[in-house]
Amino acid sequence: MLKTVQIEDEIKKYAVSFSSLSELNPLVTEASQAKFVLFGEASHGTSEFYTIRADLTKQLLQEHGFSFIAVEGDWPACYEVNRFVKGIAPEYSSAKDVLKASFNRWPGWMWANKEIEDLIDWLYSYNQTTTKKKVGFYGIDVYSLWESMEAIVDYLQKSNSPALEKALQAIECFDPFERKPEKYGISAAFYGEDCKDEVLELLNSIWKYKELIPNDPDSELNMKINAIVTSNAEHYYHTMITDDNESWNIRDRHMVEALDHIAQFHGTSAKGIVWEHNTHIGDARATDMASEGLVNVGQLTREKYGRENIYAVGFGTYQGTVIAATEWGVPHEIMAVPNGAEGSWEEAMHHANASNQYLMFTAQNRNVFRDVIGHRAIGVVYHPRYEHHGNYVPSRLSERYNAFIHVEMTKALSPL
């Protein structure tokens, strides 16, 4: 294993400092060759991670022909944003309007924030002027069980589908759990009282009558993904109480499944941009996740599409502030992000050059960044005082990512 001082010397040799986002062009050019560009983040509450990803995303859309953005968000909420940016949601007067209306479930700050508002405004304007197929904005997470079922019922009602009866039966089965996933999980895992059969019957009925779906590709995609969410979310909540690792795998496999359907919708030559936490987009095989039997989007997409078609960019910071909460479901607050821990990747980047910088892993330098080193990960629940005991993921950075962007000092994002 390289000593810290050796790692710092290698960072000095290969990292490039930047003071403006235009200086990241070499990274964008290399990333543009991939079918999917995966943009990470070390937390869900850091302004610079959002603004830098937004700028790089705009470049990929404008200059390199990328077709859509897929994010770590719920499909129904993001689909409302998708409708807005495509100009087919007259009920929303602005990006702020659609974001506040759609992301009202905790942790709403992940997407209902000023940084995303600016991007959604830009996407709306871009779609009004582009001569190409309009850019889509989609959520590929698995949590929206009840919202997806409601969207299915709404669609089946409007189309007078015979599958409506099965959809109503599925919703009726889930009603006693009061939209509380943990309540459903306990019932399913310990008492054998679940709604798996009702979900399967609903899906079978949807596919049986799919020829009755009107010729509306967007609505067909919406229906298809909501059906996939319903099935996978039931499986996720059924599993999460007794097997945390397997529920993680169900979630990330779902994300890749949804991503594949979105890509097919946009055509065989479509290229997509994914926004998720580093723990999802950085190859799990390059971390201690692998020893726990965990997979993630970074690993699964490389396996499915080939390494040459995936470009993963990790993000990190040395110090600053962040939006997070002390417990699941409680109000968010602005918290201090301590200096990177001794011996960590963040500390090495800081000591090598205390500035914003990026590092592209290539054949020339990949071996020198293969050693295992701790890399910070902050979730929506965070305790800065105790982060050294559980917020660092042992990683081989050059295998986990294709590139890494370090922001020396960051600030919390701005919730709407």
UniProtKB/TrEMBL annotation:
InterPro entries linked to this entry: Emycin_Estase (IPR007815), Hydrolase/PRTase-associated (IPR052036), UCP036794_erythomycin (IPR014622)
Protein name stated in the entry: Erythromycin esterase family protein
Any Pfam family hit: Erythro_esteras
Top-level taxonomy: Bacteria, Bacillati, Bacillota, Bacilli, Bacillales
PANTHER family hit by this protein: ESTERASE, PUTATIVE (AFU_ORTHOLOGUE AFUA_1G05850)-RELATED
SUPFAM superfamilies: EreA/ChaN-like
